[in-house]
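Entry 14. Structure prediction run on the chain below.
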Amino acid sequence: MGDLLTQNNLVTLFALTTGIVSIYQLLEYLSTKNIPWLLRLIRGGWRGVVRRFRGDISDGPRQLILNFSGHPVLPGQQQDIGQMMHWPSPEVIDVSLGNVAEDHNFVATIEKAVEKIALLPEEWQTTPLVVIPAGYSLIWSVVLAELHGRLGYFPDVVRLRPAKTVSNEKFEVAEIMNLREVRHNSRDKR
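Output returned:
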């Protein structure tokens, strides 16, 4: 017992205990202070794994169609958007806004819905995307402000119209509106 409590053994035991406590405190800090960041990282990694196993990942960069409309994007619409944007194979992400109650704060609900897209801040800045807007203008205003804050610019917006020909798709893609260009042109009118 006397050999166990020598000065060298006590220093080693102290260093080992200090290291374990430091690692524990670091893990505790990462898990409590950075939960949103960790959740986004885990969610993004999980979606990447799922997309890879499904074969949804192309060799090039992702091109996203963010659908806030609450209606599915039909194959012909997706193809038309891809052609208008000059994208070979755009990926559709349906963003469910749900039913936002009139007596509740829209902003918190919209922030949660946009957060579920699970793009990292770098991806928001670098991924080409186009948006299909929500039909309710008050909600769309908040969505547009949220997207502008994350992107740093206004996104391109898809305008749908009733289809002129009889087909399975009742709505067709009329145009892609470049809101950055609209904003830039209107600045000259100040």
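The mean pLDDT is 82.
Filed with the rest of this week's runs.
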